[in-house]
Each structure stands twice: as structure tokens, then as C-alpha cells.
Amino acid sequence: MKARDLSIRKKIVLLITAITACALLLASAAIIYNSRALFVIRLQKDMSILAELTAMNSAAAIMFEEQKGAGKMLANLQSDHSIMSAALYKVDGELLSYYVREKSNSIPPHHLPRISNQITQNSIRIVQAIIIDNEQVGGIYLESDLSRLNEFSQQLLYILLSISSSILFIVMGVSIRLQAIITRPIINLTRLTKKVSQSNDFSQRASKTARDEIGTLIDGFNHMMAEIQLRDDILQNNNKELSIAKQTALNASDAKSSFLANMSHEIRTPMNGVLGMLELLADTPLNDEQYEFARTARNSGFALLDVINDILDFSKIEAGKLDIENIDMELLPLCEDVSALLSDKAHEKNIELTCFVCSDVPHYIICDPTRLRQILLNLIGNAIKFTESGEVSLQVSVTNNQRLKFSIKDTGIGISKEQQTKLFSAFTQADASTTRKFGGTGLGLSISKQLTELMGGEILIDSELNQGSTFYFELPLKVASNAPEIQPLHNIQNKHIIIVDDNHTNRLILENYCHNWGLSYLSYASAKEALSALNKPNDLPHIDCAIIDFHMPEMDGLQLAEKIRQHSHYAKLPLLMLSSSNVSNTMPNIDICLLKPARQTLLFKSLAKLILPKPIASEQATEKTPSVQFNAHALLVDDNNINQKVAGTFLQRLGLKIDYCDNGKSALESINQNDYDIVFMDCHMPIMDGYQATETIRRWEDENNLPRLPIIAMTANVLKGDREQCILAGMDDYLAKPIQQKFVTAILHTWLSAHLQQVVPTLHTEKTLVTPDQETPYSLQSLIEKHAQILNFEPQNIKSLLHDFYLQYQNIIPQLSHTLEQQDYQSTKDILHRFKGTAGNLGFQALFDLGTEIDKQLKQSNKNLLQSAQFIQLCQHTQKLMLILQPLHSTENTPALDSLAIKNNSASPDALIYQLTQQLQRQSHKASDSAQELESYFQSDPENLKTVHSIQHAIFQLDYDPARQIVDRIIQDLKQDNSQNHA
Questions:
Q1: Which strands form 733-736's sheet, in the order they lie side by side?
Q2: Burial (CB count <10 Å: 0-12, 13-18, 19+), residue 712
């Protein structure tokens, strides 16, 4: 421990002891020094006296030069042990006799030295003359060591040490007793300070024992404690008030968020119905005025929906409840989808909208696609809104510091420096006049800024008034590690292309695409420039294709195409047109027409189709695809009849004999009665699920020493750990829904290879590839045709499956909403699991993906699932699909209704029921009038009157589907009555 860390008590004791020790040391040193000096002087005197006495006694021997007598006189010095050597000298200074102590190294000089007294480091030397009668007769030399001085010094040191030690012990004892007078108040004050710090009791006070400096310190401490106690009381009161205010604010914020979420949900539900019906209304025969009314209402509805979305998102961000996902995503399709979504708005204003993703930007990244799409929609939508003419461009690039940069540039009204400072504030636009002219909530940019920051980026603006604006934001570039390999496209390198477009940005994008694809190109800013160059074919390389813009000044794309066709050298030149409006591919002189902004992949495939040589028809037709057949008996266990039909059809095509069960218990009974080669087992079923059934089968096999029956799991769960759970339950393999033919074939190859009969080559002609990711068609017939191609089923079978799907899930959204509102998450998972699995099997991939995302959130116990973007999208997709499928149900009921319909205008009950059914299908407000008329016919029939009242109540609550179900039951009752009457 360092000295500065010692207690005050120890410091005081050590300080007094150290001072005393230093004083004693200095005093002892002075005493020793002074005593040695006095002792040396005394030694000199003693030596001088001894020399005189020896000289007097030896005077006769020296005078007569008797050496023997002189020696005897010197021998008497042996009694003094300190004499090292001695010598007597004659009158002429010659040595007469000498004495040397035994074991002494001191030798007297041979000649008398100079008369003196010398003190050296180790001895004292005395040289004196021998004088008799005032006449020198000789000399004497004595040398003595300092042993007597050392003995004296040692004795003195012992004495001083004894005295000093005694004094030090006395001083330490006294200082220990005296320091308490000084340190006790300080120690008490320290203990009190520690006690106060531990207990936070500021009412404690220190006792004052003296009026010295320590007393003054105690007075200051007590005054400080009084001030702290007063401030602590004030602070606690303030904290209580702040806590109450904070809780009030939190309650208000929660109430506000809950209100916004609930109101958003309540508004969205009827709004989705309104928008869906307006969309269907627009597809019906309307005159121009009616179509304009419907279009205006639909646009107004979407504008209102945007406002609701903005307010809800802002509320979530403000409350810190908005989570950012980090998932693998494709960047290019997302950017192109956003551009395509906003292209109509741009084209209505005759604005060029372009989208360009640089070639060094990774195709697959890790990001939140929903929030990124929202930011781009906000920024590009704003750019289009505030641009009257010119262009709006989106460019994506990689910066030098490896960040992803999105730039949205427009030629609009621009923003002044002063307005830019408040641009990203909530509920704020550039100025009041802008708000009045362009509308909006003023939340878009604020939400975009906060979303960008939540994603680890920042958003900036570069703009000048009346000079356009450039909004750009940067995000961390995270390349997806598990990205699928990008399939190589056709090789169209070293081909020559002509680009004709009056828009500079469009030309730059097309030139960049051509460069990346290895194409050589010639680019022209007008049709006249292109024609001038084409009129000199010898100066040009062989041209393989021309990309022409439709809308150009002076001469448009169609006129240019006509001129090119009239040129003998380019009569058969492939022409690809880019247009900002919906035009037909059957336009004269045009081979392919694409809508701007053209998707990069679609543009590439179109060029490849025009440039590359056409394959020979016989080669297309002779491409062989193996069709396998298995001689096996399979059991298909699934509680959903649609899933049974889809999976059963796939298996029957492969030659398998199929038995069906709808739960695990009946599957066990069937396995006990029949010999199966393989079992396809759904995991989630009533009575007994697939896991329990599989465990029972495996236990049964072990107990009876039976061979292992291959069991293949079929589940819509595609989350991490689901496959492992199936294998752990005893299943052998895993088939994820939606089920596809190729995966079923692969499973059978793995587990039924011994039952494979033969491979029969079958010929397939080339057909258009239809994927389940495409947007749902707006007509029922196109929907049936599309999904017949997806599943390779007959249209009539698809129609039957879709009708079953509609009957099972027409009320799926109210069911899910009810279970979520009740926080019954297990029921929600069960309903959602069956719905998404069936939808996926029928080829509705978007519904399956949304169901999977919602399933993830259910596992995370997301309590705001009703307001989540995924659930809202699921509601929108499902409602739109059910509206398309609704005529299937109407068609099924037509025979009964035909018998009820009355062609004249008489208001019979049958006619009213028929009319009410049609109105409920259209969700018409006139349904309440028809129900009221129907009520008058059943005044004397209490049972039917009660049923009509239920219909009226449902119509009043805008619950058209439940009302229609009640009407359907009435129709069924009438059909039974008619049958009985005919009988």
C-alpha cells in the first residue's frame, strides 16, 4: 500500500515518529562528530606526554649512544597496545634504537623526521626533539593506531542508539495517544459520510467537539447536508410529478398508437373492399363518364390509403416499435418493380421515368425489402409529383467506401436552401402554397429519413429553386452470402445495335446495358440523325437490331420504323420499340414493344429473341423429357381435400395407386389393413397429427420387428428447424408445400427406386412459362388458365379446386382477424397453416409467402400483427382473389336460382331472393331495400321472418358474406321444397 493511501491516524503517527527520528539522527551525528574530535585532541596530548616521558628517561642512553639501554626504554612501551612503533634518534638524526609492535606493519623511518604531530586515516604520529639543558641531544618518534578512538566511538554509538530508541518508543506512544484528538472527529465524519452515501439519509448530522479548523469543517459538512436534503426533497417531488407526467404521456402515446392502429385497421378493411369493387367496376362495360367517375374514386381511395399508411408508419417509428429486417433480397427486380408501379403516374404527366442499376451493384444483398421499397416509392413519387415536365431517374451505384447509393433525380420545381432545412420535419412541406397545390401529409420524407437511419444510412438533398432536385441516400452494402447462382443468359455479344431516343438519360442507360452485354452500338438523339446514318449503309457495320423510342419530336418511332422498312437494306431489320404508353405488339413494322421503364432482364430477353437465330421447329419438338412410372401403392394423409386432390393428381400421374385419409388416426387404421409402399403424411391435422401418427408407426414397427415404411412429411412450415422436427419424429424425408411435380418425382426416385418401371420418352413442344409469382389476373377465366399451366392440370379440374378453395376460405380474413384480436395465437397458427399450404399447392405463391412471414411473426409473439404490412397485404391479396373466385359459387347456385327467377317485374319472394343474392355479391347498398321488401312477405312466417331479420342485421353491419351465406341456406331449403313438390 502506498503512503498516500494510509489512514490519517497512521500518517500522523508516522509523521511525528519520522520527525523525531530525524532529530535524533542529526543530534547523534553531531554528538559523535564532536566527541571524536575531542577524543583525537586528547589522544594527541596523551601521545605527546608519553613521548616527553620516554625522551626524559632515555636521555642518558641517547647522550652516550647506548643502543641497548635505549632499546630497553622503548620496550617499556609494550604495555600500551595502541603504540604501533617507536624510535630514538641520535643528535645527528641517525636511528639509535626502535620498537615495532608484534604483527604491526608500521616501520619507523631510519632518519629523524621533521618535528610534528600528524593525524592520518589510520594512526597518530608524534615526532619530538629530546632537549637537555636547552640543547637538543636527539629525537623520538611515536606512532599509535586509532583503536582507542574506534572503541570510544563504538561505545558512544551504542549509548546513542539506546537513548534514541527509547525516545522513539516514547514519542510513538505519545503520538498514538495524541493523534486521536485530531483524527477522531475526522474519522467520525468519514463514517457518517459513508453511512449517508449508503442509506441516502440526508438528515444525518456530524457532532462538533472543538472550534478549530476541524470544527469549521464539520459546520460546513452539516450545512452542505442540509442543502442536499432540501434539494433531495425538491428532486423527489419533481420526480414524482415527472413520473406521473411520463406515465400520462405513455398512456396517451399508447392510446394514440392504439387508436391510430385500430382506426387504420377499421378504415383499411372497408377501404380495401371499396377499392376492390371499384377495380371490378372499372372492368365492367361503362360509358366514358362512368369510367371517369370510377377511376377518380379509385385514385382518391388509393390516395386516402397512402395517407393512412403514412400516419401508421410515423406512429410506429415515433413509438420505436418499427423493426427492420435483414434478409436476402434481389435488388434489381425491386428497383424495377418500384419504377413500373409509378410509371403510370409519370406517363400521365408525359415525364420520362428511368431506372438504372450499375453493373457493379451485387444482385443479391441483405436488406429490408419492404422498407427499401417504401423509401423509393416515397422519393420517386415525390419527384413525379413535383415535376411538370422533363424526367425522373433512379440510379443505384456502389460508392468508393463500399456503400450502396440510391440517387433520385428530377427536373421539377426545386427546393431553396431555406426550405431544405425543414424538409425532413414531420407534417411539413416546402411551403404553404406547395401544400395547397400538391397536397399530401408531409410525412413521406420524414418517414423516409427515419427509415434510412434505422437501416444504418443517411438521406441528403442537392437542389436549387427551379433547377430540379436530387435526393440520395446511402445504405451499408451487405452482400448476401447464401445467394443463389444467377443463371447465365443467352450470349448476344459482338452484335451491332442502333439506339434512337431523344432523351439523353434513356440513351445513357441503353448504352450502358449494351456495353455490359458485349454489344456494339450506335446512338442517335433523333429519328432524322438515325435515318441520315442508315442511308449510308456502307459506312456502317452490319446492324442486327434497332431500339427505337416511340415518343420523339418531329418524327416519332412509328414513322421512323416505316422509313426503315422502306429502305431495301433494312427491310427485315428487327425493331424493338420502347413506349411510355400501352401500345400493342401488333403495330405495323414493330417486332416487339416494351413499356418504359423497360426491365433490364426483359429487354435482354427481347433483344436475344430478335437477334439470335430461331431454333429449328423439329429440334424444339424432339426435346425429350423423361416421364417415369412407379408400380407402387401410396397412402396420402391430409385433412384438406384440395391438398389431397393436388398431391393425389401428381402421384397418380406417376403411376401410383392412392388411398386417402384425413387424420393420423384413420391413417393408422388404413396402414393396419393395407400394405403400402410409401406414406405422404401432413404434419398438422385434427384428432391425431402427423408427428404423433409417425411416432406410433415407428413404435409399432419396433415392437413387431416390421420393416420400416417410408414416411414423407408434407407441411407448409418451411422455417428453420421444421425439417429437423420431422426427422426427429421418425419421418424419412420432407416435402415442403406448395407441392411441385418435380419434387414429388425426386422423392419417389429416392424411396421407390425398386418400384420404377421404365422411362418413357415423351415429346413436349415449347410453351410459355407461367410462374406463380406473376400478378393475379383480373378475370376468372385467365386465372383458371394460368393455374392450369402452373399445375399442368386440366382447366375443369382447376375450376373445381378453385371452387372448393373459395368455399373453404371465403371467410378466412375475418377468422384470422378474430383470433388475433382474441390473442388466440395457436388457433391463428392452425388456420393460417392450412390456408397457406392449400394456397401454395394451388399456385398462389404470394399468399403462401405472406402466410410464411406471418407465421414467423406468430412465433415471435408479435402483438401488433393485425397492423403489420404482411397481414394487410394478405388481406388485400385474399379479398381480391375471393372477388375473382366469387362467380364460381354463383355458377354453382345458378340452376336453383333459375327456377326462382321471374322474368317479369312482379315482386315475388323468389324474384326478391334472386335480386338480393345478386346485390349481396356486388355488395350493393340496395341490398337493404330488397331485404326490407322480403320481410313483408314473411310477416306470418316467424321462422323465415327471423332469418330475414338476421340478413338485415348482417347487411346493416356491412357483413355481406354472412348475409349471402344465410341467403344460400334459404335457396337450399327452397331447392329441397321444389324436389319434394316434384316428387
A1: 657-661, 633-637, 678-682, 711-715, 733-736
A2: buried
**Contact predicate 645/653, CB 8 Å:** no
pLDDT per residue as tens digits for the range 608-632: 888 887 654 333 333 333 456 888 8
DSSP, res 383 = H
Cell of 469: 432536385
| DSSP characters over 695-714 | HHHHHHHHHHTPPPPPEEEE
Supply the DSSP symbol for 493: T
Highest-scoring range by mean pLDDT, 436-440, 658-662, 802-806 = 658-662
Distance CA 803, CA 843 (A): 14
Q: How far apart are the first and last CA of the chain?
A: 114
More confident: 224 or 715: 224
Q: Which residue bears the cell 386516402?
A: 304
CA–CA dist 900, 963 (Å, integer): 19
For the chain, give the percent of residues with pLDDT over 90: 14
Please name the residue that has the C-alpha cell 385433412: 639
Contact 404, 396 (CB under 8 A): yes
State the pLDDT at residue 575: 92
Which cell numbers in the block locate residue 104? Answer: 604491526
How far, CA to CA in Å, does 706 sit from each of 634, 650, 659, 711, 940? 18, 29, 21, 14, 69
d(CA 80, CA 54): 13
For the record, the C-alpha cell of 613 comes out as: 437465330
Distance CA 513, CA 511 (A): 5
Q: Which of 524, 737, 711, 718 is nearest to 636 (CA)?
A: 711
Question: Counting Cβ atoms within 10 Å, is residue 426 exposed (0-12), middle (13-18) or buried (19+)?
Answer: middle
Q: Chain-wide mean pLDDT for the chain?
A: 79
Please report, for residues 260, 701, 720, 963, the alpha-carbon distance to residue 256 in angstroms, rounded to integers and kept in the order given. Answer: 6, 60, 37, 34
pLDDT value of position 475? 93
pTM more than 0.70:
no
* Distance of alpha carbon 882 from alpha carbon 809, whole angstroms: 9
pLDDT at residue number 289: 65
Strands lying side by side in the sheet with 352-357: 352-357, 391-398, 403-410, 469-476, 458-463
Q: Measuring CA to CA, which residue among 148, 128, 151, 126 is closest to residue 80?
A: 148
Cα torsion 563, 565, 571, 576: sign? positive
**483 HSE (CA, 13 A, CB side):** 17
pLDDT for residue 899 is more than 60? no
Residue 784 has pLDDT above 70, yes or no: yes
CA dihedral 805, 808, 810, 811 (to 10 degrees): -150
CA 578 to chain centre: 40
